[in-house]
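User: Working on a comparison across species. This one is Flagellar basal-body rod protein FlgF from Paraburkholderia kururiensis. Can you predict its structure so I can line it up against the others?
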Amino acid sequence: MDRLIYTAMTGATQALEQQAVVANNLANVSTTGFRAQLAAFRAVPMSFGDGNTVNTDTTRTFVLASTPGADYTPGPIQQTGNPLDVAVQGPGWLTVLDSNGNEAYTRAGNLHVDTNGQIVNAMNQPVVGGGGPISVPPGSEVTIGKDGTVSALIPGDPPTTIVNVDQLKLVNPDPATLKHGDDGLYRTADGNPADADQNVVLAPQSLEGSNVNPVSAMVAMITNARQFQMQTKLLESASQNEQSANQLLNFS
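Assistant: Here's the predicted structure for Flagellar basal-body rod protein FlgF from Paraburkholderia kururiensis:
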């Protein structure tokens, strides 16, 4: 009896967790540079023992979440005309500083200059250049090139006096070494900063959209709802079977 209960219970729990992931993806279908999160689960035989020996019951299984990941397929790129908007073309990431001052990575290139003259992202996190956060002259006209070069032109100066301020730190670590944080940023699994990669190319005055497919996300939500329904029905069946077994024992 407990085999059915444990399997159905853990199956329902994982269906709920997977539904939360899909719902988060659907909520970010319009978020700049968002990467769809993946969720999967698998059946694992139950292990039991007295602390000294461990036995495995292949007829009794739990449902456990597999290693989560993300879909790194590039999203659509759309031109905006904003000189501070950038989109990463192909593989690669922009580097920013998180709330703890550590390097983190994002595909969201909707940048702006804050009141302190620093280039920051939409979450007001400083964008990292060759020597740390990038500062530009007050009131200057800022442009960003395909290689991440940040140029500034002070108002009133002729175009020939434009100067290169810094260069965005563009990285391209192995996706398998990245982990997604609750703040929406990605970090290396070992916590060490990734090296700059000169092969990463930007699309200036453009933004990359979310790579979430809303139709697929809706289908996944319906599928998860059906799976959760099936697991709860199995729990009801296990309860009914237990009641019937108790009645038979009472009559015996």
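For your comparison, note: Helices lie at 2-27, 214-251.

User: Helpful, thanks.
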